[in-house]
Amino acid sequence: MKGSYRMRHPEMKDGASMHYLMAVSGALEANAPYKYMMLAHYYG
To answer: Which of 15, 23, 27, 40 is placed for a possible disulfide with 10 were both Cys, Cβ 3.0 to 4.6 Å?
Structure first.
């Protein structure tokens, strides 16, 4: 995949996308979506 990527700290609005990535990975446990919003808020 070609393109440029920019790394940044997560924001609360990224919680849904983080949850989706965990759910489709199959290797990781997908917790409730609000937990990813909290992670982004407190640790972002």
So the answer is: 40
